[in-house]
Design brief:
The complex is a heterodimer of chains A (138) and B (344).
Chain A (H helix, E strand, L loop, with lengths): L4 H47 L14 H19 L15 H23 L16
Helix pairs in contact in A: 1-2
Chain B lengths: L11 H29 L7 H29 L4 H4 L2 H23 L7 H7 L13 H16 L3 H16 L2 H14 L9 H30 L3 E5 L9 E5 L5 E7 L2 E6 L13 E3 L2 E3 L6 E3 L15 E2 L1 E4 L2 E5 L12 E2 L3
Antiparallel strand pairs in B: 1-10, 2-3, 3-4, 4-8, 4-11, 5-6, 6-7, 9-10
Helix pairs in contact in B: 1-2, 2-4, 2-8, 2-9, 4-6, 6-8
Classes of the chains: A mainly alpha (138), B alpha+beta (344).
């Protein structure tokens, strides 16, 4: 089936937008990781020892923290700021949010059956009849 | 307490746990790669690269399912608790298996494109407006990113630096990640195989995971609803000297009621170091000693002995009709509470 010129142009524009969006997302991802690398140097060399007493004379474990800093560096900066400025709330340290187990249970109980129903609804059967082997043109 | 960080804290239990895990993963991959082609019945012939991708992908799904079963199973039955204690190593291994799956896919489908491979990964399928042919890859990318964040923040340092509250909130990413993996498989691999055996297997496992979470949540909800502000714990004689009884509170918190020199005191069950189960420890030299890394707290005020500064919340106790009851409203960490005298 041939597309009309307008539909073909629309497809072409959508394709260009998709390519440019992908390029933009990758640029943002690179920028994010470079920013993480920039944070990781001072944090691992000085920050870790300043905010965590158990890390003061420990160096071997610090390289293991690099992937985490690269991925969540804004959170690292925020916690570093709270600890350096003494704004950390000690009373809240021991309140792991176990109440969220209820939300997690309900999330899984709703999303998983919905996904299964969607998967079954769109599933296509095999083509009817035996497959035909096509001959190559002479 | 002072426990200098090292790259990985090992003990005999962790060695055995990881060895069993690595053997199970290796066995699964071997069976899938060697016996899989005849058993799986793909709709079309597939290359060894795709077969390897499916071996690692299905292994990662299975591992995520098991990881997510451990938590509710331990809340339903304490005999599953040992499986909980090394779940972080299990999670890191799962992230590595999932990453292997991604690399097999990426290095087969996206390296021969004239466009930059990473960008091609994102724009090769943009049919977000339809169910059939939906870019299931997006679910997989999200889940992999979530697994990598969890693995990268699994070291003890992160728990202490972020605080258990933020660390746990971050690690709740595992739930949307699991839902995304189910969608990734359902809209991807499950659409491309003959028959329903493979999809039904995947969906059954996912439903078991969801069912266990619901069952554990309902159990804790019923227990919380049955108790008011004062929660019955047990009779005094049921707690051995130097030991504790753990009680669940509304919201899922746990408190440990200890007997020390014939008197009773209660503190949070979660150690300030890594949330280790204090109630499974014992009193050594007058202090509750965490069974995981030996962090200690005075039972009367939840403070570590000087010069250490860790603190955990404390709870008030009372005796009613021969039963110890605990006030579910926790005191701020380090609050002294007069111990409850044992009845004579």
């Amino acid at each position: 089936m041939m597309l009309s010129p307008a539909a073909a142009m629309s497809n072409r524009v959508a394709r260009i937008v998709a390519v440019q969006t992908a390029a933009l997302l990758m640029d943002l991802a690179r920028l994010w990781l470079w920013a993480g690398a920039a944070v990781s140097v001072p944090f691992l060399l000085w920050g870790v020892g300043r905010v965590e007493p158990n890390a003061r004379d420990s160096w071997a474990f610090r390289p293991l923290l690099i992937p985490g800093v690269l991925l969540i560096w804004p959170l690292v900066l925020w916690r570093w700021f709270l600890l350096e400025t003494g704004r950390d709330d000690w009373a809240k340290r021991h309140l792991p949010p176990r109440r969220a187990h209820a939300f997690a249970a309900l999330l899984l109980a709703v999303l998983i059956p919905l996904t299964i129903i969607a998967g079954l609804a769109i599933r296509q059967g095999p083509p009817a009849g035996a497959p035909v082997l096509l001959e190559a043109p002479e | 307490m002072s426990v200098s960080y090292i790259p990985v804290q090992w003990n005999g239990f962790k060695h055995r746990y990881n060895l069993a895990l690595a053997l199970a993963v290796g066995l699964y991959l071997w069976i899938f790669v060697e016996l899989g082609p005849a058993l799986l019945g793909h709709a079309n012939p597939i290359t060894p690269q795709i077969h390897n991708a499916r071996a690692f992908g299905s292994c990662a799904f299975l591992m995520m399912s098991v990881i997510l079963m451990i938590g509710p199973l331990a809340r339903l039955d304490v005999r599953f608790l040992p499986l909980l204690y090394n779940r972080r190593h299990f999670g890191v291994m799962t992230a590595l298996v999932a990453l292997s799956h991604f690399l097999f896919v990426f290095n087969w489908y996206f390296v021969f494109t004239p466009f930059p491979s990473w960008e091609a990964l994102l724009f090769s399928n943009t049919a977000y407006d339809r169910a059939l042919g939906f870019p299931f890859e997006a679910f997989g990318i999200f889940a992999l990113l979530a697994l990598l964040i969890l693995a990268a923040t699994s070291h003890d340092f992160w728990l202490s630096f972020l605080t258990p509250r933020i660390w746990k909130s971050l690690h709740y990413l595992i739930y949307p990640a699991y839902a995304a993996v189910v969608a990734h498989v359902t809209l991807g691999a499950a659409q491309g195989v003959r028959g329903l055996a493979f999809p039904v297997l995947v969906w059954s496992l996912a439903l078991v995971v969801a069912g266990l979470h619901l069952a554990a949540w309902r159990k804790e909800r019923r227990a919380a609803a049955a108790a008011g502000e004062w929660v019955p714990v047990c009779r005094p004689e049921e707690i051995e000297e130097g030991r504790a009884r753990v009680v669940r509170l509304s919201g899922g918190e746990r408190a440990a009621v200890f007997r020390h020199e014939g008197r009773f005191s209660a503190i949070s069950n979660a150690c300030a170091h890594q949330n280790g189960p204090l109630g499974e420890g014992r009193i050594v030299d007058g202090c509750v000693t965490c069974p995981w890394h030996g962090f200690q707290y005075r039972v009367e005020d939840g403070c570590s002995p000087a010069p250490f500064t860790e603190k955990v919340p404390t709870y008030r106790l009372r005796l009613r009709s021969g039963t110890i009851e605990l006030d579910a409203r926790a005191n701020p960490p380090g609050t002294p509470v007069q111990p409850l005298e044992a009845p004579r």
